[in-house]
Automatic annotation (TrEMBL):
<protein>
    <recommendedName>
        <fullName>PhoD-like phosphatase metallophosphatase domain-containing protein</fullName>
    </recommendedName>
</protein>
<dbReference type="Pfam" id="PF09423">
    <property type="entry name" value="PhoD"/>
</dbReference>
<dbReference type="InterPro" id="IPR038607">
    <property type="entry name" value="PhoD-like_sf"/>
</dbReference>
<feature type="signal peptide">
    <location>
        <begin position="1"/>
        <end position="28"/>
    </location>
</feature>
<keyword id="KW-0812">Transmembrane</keyword>
<feature type="domain" description="PhoD-like phosphatase metallophosphatase">
    <location>
        <begin position="55"/>
        <end position="189"/>
    </location>
</feature>
<keyword id="KW-0472">Membrane</keyword>
<feature type="transmembrane region" description="Helical">
    <location>
        <begin position="388"/>
        <end position="411"/>
    </location>
</feature>
<keyword id="KW-1133">Transmembrane helix</keyword>
<keyword id="KW-0732">Signal</keyword>
<dbReference type="InterPro" id="IPR018946">
    <property type="entry name" value="PhoD-like_MPP"/>
</dbReference>
<dbReference type="InterPro" id="IPR029052">
    <property type="entry name" value="Metallo-depent_PP-like"/>
</dbReference>
Length: 424
């Protein structure tokens, strides 16, 4: 007789935190917890099934073509999670530095963004819902989600925004939230979902938030050190294993991990956006510079792996995120991936679920290759933190000196030539 295989302790559940940006002020006032248990009658695709394929995305312009849905449908997710900026509900005035309608700079006298009427917001949601790929996905997968600033109604708006109740209603309509749902009566759209049978549960919590960040801004949570500490403490105190984050908002994708927040690495998979992406805003030769900038941006949390499409391990074209859990292998494993508009993998990490279990005296901290994931960017030496600026100004300086030398050479050559002419 052979001894039974020793099964690794199954994770009680995977805990998946969805965060979105700019709304931390609102969150502070959200205190009610609620839980939706599946199956819901209208979600035949999840029924009591084990969830092992999840896709997510953010930042979709309802008025632009959205070809990426084809790749998402090809992945065949059971669950799709909207991470915000599901539509662009607000309006943007042109960039102007001077005049009566200066929208940027020291002479700014007009806000760059302004909200839409309710009817216009509704129309934009209809456009989004009518995107052919998305309509098909809705038939094949359960769709859930949260908002960010542009679908909340206004760029960078917070708790004070007066139309927030309208925006909430419109988002919940878009997500087909039942009329009698408690989510329609609470302040904010936070929610928590529990999928799958015991031993193979996935919990999705959409609640918090803390990230604001321009292009390639490192470590957005760094702006909210207190909140971040509180969050880490919450995770540690709960003694929950399997917690990781998914996020959107920034118009590029990356995978990060922080190894000293709790007793196992905290991963964050950022996917942004479904249509909006940094590299689409610049003409072709500049995308190399953007990638170079991303590569030079000091980062301690970004996970560099050989599977990245680019050396920077950021991906600033249209993308979506993917989570695949293999519940049936021993040990169980999980894969985080970023995929391109064609469905190709552009960044991926895969590991055993046991890595997301608390370990007293975490052994991974002793490994050199993970040590840097314990450093916060703000703790880096100043020359590392500013290396991008050095590279930029250094390059400018070199060009400037080269230009001066060139001018000097031309001037002295010209002088010699004139003198020669005179002599002749
Ligand atoms: C959302 O956050 C608040 C405060 O941060 C917390 O009290 C509440 O339980 C959370 N809700 C969910 C659904 O996790
Ligand atoms: C969305 O797409 C439309 C059509 O291409 C474009 O006119 C509009 O500026 C885009 N909006 C944003 C926020 O990018
Ligand atoms: C918005 O909704 C909240 C919670 O449902 C409610 O307490 C508040 O009075 C509403 N505000 C307005 C302006 O209707």
């Amino acid at each position: 007789m052979t001894a039974p295989l020793v099964r690794p302790r199954l994770l009680p559940f995977l805990f998946l935190l969805v965060y979105f940006c700019n709304l931390c002020k609102i969150i502070a006032s959200e205190t009610r917890e609620r839980e939706i248990r599946f199956p819901k009658p209208q979600s035949p695709y999840l029924s009591d099934a084990v969830v092992s394929r999840i896709a997510f995305g953010s930042c979709a312009n309802q008025s632009a073509p959205q070809p990426i849905w084809n790749a998402i449908i090809d992945f065949a997710p059971q669950l799709f999670i909207w991470l915000g900026d599901n539509i662009y509900g607000d309006n943007r005035r042109p960039l102007r530095f001077f005049g009566r309608e200066a929208t940027v700079g020291p002479l700014k006298n007009t806000p760059r963004f302004f909200p839409s009427e309710e009817s216009e917001m509704r129309r934009r949601y209809q456009l989004a819902k009518a995107q052919p790929g998305y309509s098909l996905l809705r038939k094949r997968a359960q769709v859930i989600g949260t908002w960010d600033d542009h679908d909340y109604g206004l760029n960078d708006a917070g708790k004070e925004f007066s139309e927030k109740n309208t925006s909430q209603r419109l988002l919940l309509d878009f997500l087909d939230e039942p009329e009698d749902s408690a989510r329609r009566r609470q302040a904010g759209v936070y929610a928590s979902y529990l999928f799958g049978p015991k031993g193979k549960q996935v919990k999705v919590v959409s609640n918090l938030s803390a990230s604001t960040g321009p292009i390639f801004y490192v470590e957005s949570w760094g702006h909210f050190p207190k909140e971040r500490k509180r969050l880490y403490k919450l995770i540690s105190d709960s003694e929950r294993s399997g917690v990781f984050f998914i996020s959107g908002d920034v118009h590029f994708a990356e995978i990060t991990r922080y190894d000293c927040g709790c007793e196992y690495p905290l991963y964050d998979i950022t996917s942004s956006g479904l249509t909006q992406a940094v590299e689409r805003t610049v003409p072709p030769p500049l995308d190399y510079l953007l990638r170079l900038a991303a590569w030079l941006t000091p980062t301690t949390m970004r996970v560099y792996s050989s599977t990245c499409q680019y050396k920077s391990c950021t991906y600033a074209k249209q993308n979506f995120g993917v989570i695949e859990i293999d519940w049936d292998t021993i040990p169980q494993s999980i894969k985080f991936e970023v995929r391109s508009v064609n469905g190709n993998s552009v960044n991926m990490v895969k590991f055993s679920l046991t890595e997301l279990q608390p370990k007293k005296m975490n052994r991974i901290h002793k490994q050199e290759k993970y040590r840097q994931h314990c450093i916060l960017e703000i703790e880096l030496p100043w020359f590392r933190r500013h290396q991008l600026a050095f590279a930029f100004f250094g390059t400018l300086a070199v060009y400037f000196v080269a230009l001066i030398i060139l001018v000097w050479i031309i001037a002295s050559a010209g002088k010699t030539f004139v003198q020669k002419l005179k002599i002749d």
